[in-house]
């Protein structure tokens, strides 16, 4: 984390802040777009997929909040004064909520639409958002890894109607 901090540049930091903020748009936008597409095209399968993606993300979010409440791990910049965050995130650190929800959305949409042109951008987005959290100094790598595992696991365990 100290190496990431030492290599920060203003341009990279702007990109990482942007990526970090996209999680809301993807987590909400993907199922909303599927629902809208399903309504417009009168496609019941697309509507079901929107519910599957939204449910997976919502369950991951709820599980993440519960784990955060139980573990109460302090943010890296609180535990190590040498880590200077780009901004001071609130709450607790473990697991990363950004990683949990973006990986849940990515895995669920990849399950629903198992095509390379869906899978690659979905996981590139989730991975980029997750990496940004470490770059910004607000999460440990283990926070991000646990969040990614939680989100991916939620999507895999939730049944998808085929």
Automatic annotation (TrEMBL):
<dbReference type="GO" id="GO:0050380">
    <property type="term" value="F:undecaprenyl-diphosphatase activity"/>
</dbReference>
<protein>
    <submittedName>
        <fullName>Phosphatase PAP2 family protein</fullName>
        <ecNumber>3.6.1.27</ecNumber>
    </submittedName>
</protein>
<feature type="domain" description="Phosphatidic acid phosphatase type 2/haloperoxidase">
    <location>
        <begin position="50"/>
        <end position="159"/>
    </location>
</feature>
<keyword id="KW-0472">Membrane</keyword>
<keyword id="KW-1003">Cell membrane</keyword>
<dbReference type="InterPro" id="IPR000326">
    <property type="entry name" value="PAP2/HPO"/>
</dbReference>
<keyword id="KW-1133">Transmembrane helix</keyword>
<keyword id="KW-0812">Transmembrane</keyword>
<dbReference type="Pfam" id="PF01569">
    <property type="entry name" value="PAP2"/>
</dbReference>
<keyword id="KW-0378">Hydrolase</keyword>
<dbReference type="InterPro" id="IPR036938">
    <property type="entry name" value="PAP2/HPO_sf"/>
</dbReference>
<dbReference type="GO" id="GO:0005886">
    <property type="term" value="C:plasma membrane"/>
</dbReference>
